[in-house]
Amino acid sequence: MGTLLGNAPQESEADDEAAPGSVVAFPYDRMTVDQFRHRFPRARWRDDIKAWWVPGKTASRRIGRWLAEQEAEADAHADARGRDAFAFEPIVSPYLEIGRAGFQIRTPYSKTVVEELREIRFARWDGDLRLWHVPFRSFEDLRSHWTAIEAAARRNEPAERARRAEARKGSEDELKAKARSTERRKRRYPVLPDALPPPGVPVAISYGIVVFTEITGELVDPAAVSDLYPGATENHVWGLWRAPSLKELLSTWPAKAVPDPPGDWWLPTIEELRPARRAARVREGTDTVRRG
Q1: Cα 266 versus chain centre, distance
Q2: Which residues of 86-115 are buried (b: 16+ CB within 10 A; e: fewer)?
């Protein structure tokens, strides 16, 4: 809405003495200016700083209250516009309901759904109700993402997932998935002896962020793991890893970019750290509940 520029003495060519006060700037709008001048009749425009000067020791506090009121009023208008837009062209979906303050979205879990909703301004997750809240003012954002949200939700319905699982049974894709799962449970990864990852430090590998705990020295058999680790050679050795803790991930300084070529491991970027941190929060929160 506007910017409170802070307390400052009044200084201009016409004034020799400083006086307490504060300055504020906001985009020009005739109605807003009229409201501002009615609220602050002693305010005057300072052309030298392109802002309004409000005299008085409490000017900063009074301006702050006025800006908050203006912002709340703007939000109310935006919500009204969003509600009207929805009434004119509604989204009809079993995953969307209308609440008192906006839209309520409840879908089967889907990473795509979460990513799409995180792109919508003011969307928030309600852990108690297990649904997403999106205010009416964000309706246009919601509509632009809705096709992807609904498609991902339908793909993750239990019946649809069961159908796909049944279709995959005995297929090459299922065999590869089982092999990957079996290998991941071994918590090992091939690394070169002359380019070992730092122990105890979160690093990125081809399928996530891990912390290497030990280099066994055991040579990798490339023929046995070529489908899982295409870059593995007879010079690679096995390194053992564990999942990083949230504390470790939060204290990791992100790299600016992934090296090109990346190698067997690299320092993670912020784009890689963010989902890892979210997963760690969920994992550690679940562990706390189980222990409780």
Answers
A1: 23
A2: beeeeeeeebbeeeeebbbbebeebeebbe
DSSP annotation of 128 reads: T
Exposure letters 148-175 (e unless 16+ CB within 10 A, then b): ebbebbbebeeeeeeeeeeeeeeeeeee
pLDDT tens track for 66-121: 877 777 777 788 888 899 999 999 999 999 999 888 999 999 999 899 999 999 98
- Compute the distance between CA of residue 77 and CA of residue 1 in angstroms, rounded to an integer: 13
**What does the block give as tokens for 96?**
């969307």
Residue type, 223: A
The span from the CA of 26 to the CA of 67, in Å, is: 10
Q: Are 264 and 189 in contact (CB under 8 A)?
A: yes
240 exposure class (CB count in 10 Å sphere: 0-12, 13-18, 19+): middle
Measured from the Cβ of residue 184, the count of other Cβ atoms closer than 10 Å reads: 13
Residue with structure tokens 């090109």?
260
Give the residue from 219, 223, 93 showing the smallest Cα distance to 147.
Answer: 93
Joined together, the tokens standing for residue 274 give 């963010």
Bridge pairing between strands 188-191 and 124-126 = unpaired
CB 130, CB 173: distance < 8 Å: no
Measured distance CA(33)–CA(249) in Å, rounded: 48
Report cis status (omega within 30 of 0) of the bond before 261. Answer: yes
User: For 111, how many CA atoms within 13 A lie in the half-sphere containing its CB?
Assistant: 4
Sheet of strand 3-7: strand arrangement: 3-7, 21-25, 51-55, 44-46
User: H or E segment at 87?
Assistant: helix 59-88
Interval 226-252: pLDDT, tens: 889 988 999 999 999 999 999 999 999
pTM of the shown model: 0.48
- Give residue 281's identity as a one-letter amino acid code: R
